[in-house]
Design goal:
Helix content of chain A: 10-25%
Number of domains of chain B: 2
Strand content of chain B: 35-45%
Largest sheet of chain A: 6 strands, antiparallel
Oligomer: heterodimer
Structural class of chain B: alpha+beta
Helix content of chain B: 10-25%
Radius of gyration of chain A: 23 Å
Shape of chain A: globular
Number of helices of chain A: 11
Structural class of chain A: alpha+beta
Largest sheet of chain B: 7 strands, mixed
Shape of chain B: globular
Largest interface: A-B, 80 and 80 residues
Chain lengths: ~450, ~475
């Protein structure tokens, strides 16, 4: 891969670029979907391609393709250069330069990203794992009447980045996940529940735990009604908390800050959260799905403290946004493959754990709502103002204990008010991959508007 | 005009060899889906044209269906060796005797007419289009603090060859522009967005593309005067056009046959039953000329068609791809769609709409003593198994004494589709189609949504004003 990237740079320079960067990747993956004790579909995937960023002075353009022949790379280079010619000049645009961090990962160093079990487990092995997830969900609760689907997927990827300014690196990584969607019925209602886990290899997945989670989430919702509309304490399940943390993380990207499109713009060094909430971006976390030695433009990943002591400590930068402020990149160029050019975004967001067990969080809440699911985040959150109203389901909390299931209601607030109202963080964190990878415990929010009947 | 699919993309003999190899270890059905894409996207931000990106690629997906199991493999690249490898991988887990595909027979299709292929329009002209949008958006009001716009074009050439002997293809070009405005007044920050797109060429932008910039800016400016949205159950009037996303989410997804056959749809077993008032009739139509969700054929080679979903309140049809149609013993409705060769086809909507009714929008609102007017949505989501849905309202107003009054920020509509569909008590005589991108099973496809104004007797509005 790195040789391909190096060749692509040469081609782009030959096509008239003043500087060039190439991102090449190759990815082998598989997916198994099971239903009713049978394999429904089995997919084998091979993906490979290259993307070239070309600079002509202070203009830049991007092109990508799957044709890796010499002729293909030459045509691709010409397209990248042409794209750069169309872009307007921007004095801060320019290629990243290599940065060597003295101590990138602190004492822990860069983590191991490849798990040998991805290669070692046969297709039959991983199909059995998916079937075991389905069986576990069906067996966990008699109210579970069907499994919509159980899925296992994995991939092993090689990524290489090279640039005319001396960036030159390659790494391998693997990942896998399994999930189940269970259906439960009773009391005239039908409910769905989602169970999942993600790891670097199938050997670390626990099919029973995934199945049981899906079953319990579905069964616990049977007979759900609407809560009364009111303002009350809310406990967010880690899956729900993670969705909001991911939105916060995107709002801390310097690109949205500099362009005035974030509720956090102009708030560096000011109080943005309660003392209970501590948030890091950690591109080197040992278990983090987005961990890598370098970011999407070859700059070293690292750990950045975002919110601590209630104060906004830092924003996330790539090379371009850092130059606009005369600062350094935080290694936060996000990239979802050769078909995307880099943009500023979080790597792994990590919410520091607190001291309260889940039961103690409920006790602190007293009377309120435990939210286990939210829907409509992509339309219900205004990322510029931070105002949100999203669909939700969960359980009532009465006298500090879980009570009847609740559905068809909304929770509404704005991001800054919500962060300010975090009264406590739970002690048990979990990785959640929705939006951006987030590790978070359950969170107790002192007050939120709940709209139901 | 007939298409000559595949002449440059995939030769029939290469396809035939791949199909033979796919069935080498048995199987009831095999298919090769080959695709070449070429696209261009760019944006304007801070009045600078940036993020210019030319993307291309080609690849193929090969599937073998054996009993209830689908074996699928996809590769980047369309060399005969790439196809053979995908076919071998798809067949790898099968253990039966060889099956033989039928001889391929070319079936012509009629791709939608593209008057001005965007790849023939100079790139600089597209950058100029963005500059026009930027100028119009920023000129819409002194309180417009930020404005961005985007341009996207994509051409997808596809070929489908299967073991039943079908060899066909399509040549699809789509263009879309979007505008996003941010308005600011002291501490208040509001956003507005608008899009224009179609299964069309650059001719779509000949009339007045700058209008969408003004529309996005107007939405943001209106919201500067917004108060909090009410919280609780009330009468809701939904605006035309993108309001159709309500029907798409509430009902359309529950009619997709894969959900139905797994019992994961509230509409399972209800064909012919009353699910709405007789004033409601709705369609899915993949043939609408130039519409965003249209194609000549679906991604399994079945010609697209118009399917009546609800006929005067009664459930009339589900939406099928080949596999689900086979299980129900009915023909495919031409709804087997896939995001790309990297995905398996599943039943998907194309352009879905509620047919116009006979009530003027003003009259519909005049009857409401107290309610909520959802003029447009940011998007929505449904769980087809339970029917629970949620919609984010991007432009909403109070209705007081039969009149639309103050704008509201941050409203969401939640409910259950069976209840909400029955609660529709008026359908407007106006009509508009809008573009959307629909996500399902990890795949995004372009869909059209449409309707006139629609009134729902009672629905929960999730705001902050208790």
């Amino acid at each position: 891969m790195i040789d391909l990237a190096r060749r692509a740079i040469e081609a782009a320079l030959g096509a008239g670029a003043s500087d060039a960067e190439a991102y090449a990747s190759e990815d082998r993956g598989r997916e198994v979907r099971v239903h009713g004790g049978e394999v429904e579909s089995l997919t084998a995937a091979t993906k490979r391609g290259v993307g070239i960023r070309a600079w002509i002075g202070t203009r830049t353009g991007y092109a990508y393709d799957t044709d890796l022949s010499s002729a293909g790379i030459a045509a691709l280079s010409a397209r990248a250069v042409e794209a750069a010619r169309v872009a307007d000049e921007d004095e801060f645009v320019g290629p990243p330069v290599p940065v060597r961090l003295m101590d990138p990962g602190g004492s822990k160093g860069a983590p191991e990203l490849s798990d040998p079990s991805v290669a070692a487990w046969s297709t039959a092995d991983v199909a059995d794992l998916a079937l075991a997830v389905e069986r576990a969900a069906l067996a966990a609760d008699e109210r579970v009447v069907a499994i919509e689907q159980a899925v296992y997927a994995d991939s092993a990827e090689t990524v290489a980045i090279a640039s005319s300014t001396g960036i030159d690196g390659e790494y391998e990584s693997s990942s896998c996940y399994a999930y189940v969607q269970a259906l439960a019925e009773g009391e005239g209602s039908r409910e769905t529940g989602f169970g999942f886990d993600l790891e670097r290899g199938p050997g670390s997945l626990d099919p029973k735990a995934i199945g049981v989670e899906g079953a319990e989430r579905a069964a616990s919702m049977v007979g759900a009604g609407k809560p009364a509309s009111r303002s009350c304490p809310v406990v967010l399940d880690p899956t729900v908390a993670a969705s909001f943390v991911a939105i916060v993380g995107r709002g801390l990207a310097a690109s949205t800050i500099q362009r005035g499109r974030s509720p956090f713009a102009g708030r560096l060094g000011t109080a943005v959260a309660s003392l209970a909430l501590v948030l890091h971006d950690d591109g080197l976390d040992a278990a983090g799905p987005a961990s890598a030695p370098f970011d999407g433009e070859g700059v070293a990943r690292r750990r950045t403290t975002l919110i601590e002591g209630g104060t906004l400590r830092a924003f996330l930068y790539d090379t371009y946004t850092a130059r606009r402020e005369g600062t350094d990149s935080t290694g936060s160029a996000a990239r979802s493959g050769y078909r995307s050019q880099p943009s500023v975004g979080p790597s792994n967001l990590v919410v520091a754990t607190g001291e309260l067990s889940f039961d103690e969080l409920l006790g602190e809440a007293g009377d309120g709502v435990f939210v286990t699911d939210v829907a409509g985040l992509h339309s219900g959150v205004n990322p510029v103002s931070g105002v949100f109203s999203v669909g939700a389901s969960g359980r009532a909390i009465r006298r500090g204990e879980l009570a009847e299931p609740l559905r068809e209601f909304t929770i509404a607030s704005d991001l800054l008010s919500m962060l300010g109202a975090v009264r406590a963080c739970g002690a048990e964190p979990r990785w959640v991959p929705f939006g951006a990878p987030v590790s978070t415990p359950p969170l107790l929010i002192a007050e939120m508007t709940v709209a139901g009947s | 005009m007939g298409a000559s699919p595949g002449d440059s993309l995939l030769e029939t003999d290469v396809a035939a060899r791949a199909l033979s190899r796919a069935l080498a270890h048995g199987g009831d059905f095999a298919e090769v889906f080959a695709e070449r894409t070429a696209g261009l996207t760019m944006a304007i931000d801070e009045s600078r044209v940036e993020s210019v990106q030319a993307g291309g690629g080609e690849g193929a997906g090969v599937r073998v269906v054996s009993g209830g199991t689908t074996y699928f493999a996809h590769v980047d690249g369309l060399d005969p060796a790439d196809l053979e490898r995908a076919a071998s991988e798809a067949a790898a887990a099968l253990r039966s005797g060889e099956a033989a595909p039928k001889q391929l027979k070319r079936v012509e299709s009629t791709p939608h007419l593209i008057e001005r292929p965007p790849e023939q329009v100079p790139t600089e002209r597209k950058a100029d289009l963005l500059r026009v949008l930027d100028e119009r958006g920023r000129a819409a009001g002194a309180e417009i603090a930020q404005f961005t716009a985007s341009y996207a074009e994509i051409r997808r050439q596809v070929v489908v060859a299967n073991s039943d002997g079908l060899f066909t293809g399509d040549d699809r070009t789509r263009v879309r522009i979007g505008a996003q405005a941010v308005a600011r007044r002291e501490d208040a920050v509001e956003t507005g967005a608008e899009t224009l797109g179609g299964h069309r060429g650059f001719e779509l932008f000949e009339d007045d593309p700058g209008e969408i910039a003004e529309s996005a800016a107007r939405k943001a400016l209106v919201l500067l005067d917004a108060g909090p949205a009410p919280a609780g159950s009330t009468t809701v009037v939904v605006g035309g056009g993108f309001g159709g996303v309500l029907f798409h989410e509430m009902t359309g997804h529950g009619l997709e046959a894969d959900h139905v056959q797994k019992g994961a749809s509230v509409y399972a077993g209800r064909l012919g039953e009353r699910v709405a008032e007789p004033l409601l009739t709705a369609y899915d139509d993949g043939r609408m000329p130039g519409e965003w969700g249209s194609d000549a054929i679906d991604d399994e080679g079945t010609p697209t068609q118009r399917t009546m979903l609800i006929e005067e309140g009664r459930l009339a049809s589900f939406l099928y791809d080949r596999l689900t149609a086979g299980r129900d013993g009915v023909p495919s409705t031409g709804n087997g769609r896939r995001e790309s060769f990297r995905h398996l086809p599943v039943p998907r909507m194309t352009n879905t709409y509620i047919a116009p009714g006979d009530v003027a929008p003003e009259a519909m609102i005049a009857d409401v003593e107290r309610g909520f007017y959802a003029a447009s949505f940011g998007g929505g989501q449904v769980d087809p198994a339970t029917g629970d849905f949620v919609f984010g309202v991007s432009e909403g107003y109070l209705i007081e004494a039969g009149k639309v009054t103050r704008p509201c920020r941050g409203a969401t509509l939640v409910g259950n589709c069976l209840d909400a569909l029955v609660a529709i008590d008026a359908v407007g005589d106006d009509f508009e189609m809008k573009t959307g991108v629909c996500g399902k099973a990890g795949q995004k496809v372009p869909v059209g949504t449409g309707q006139g104004h629609v009134r729902i007797k009672a629905l929960t509005v999730g705001g902050t004003e208790v």
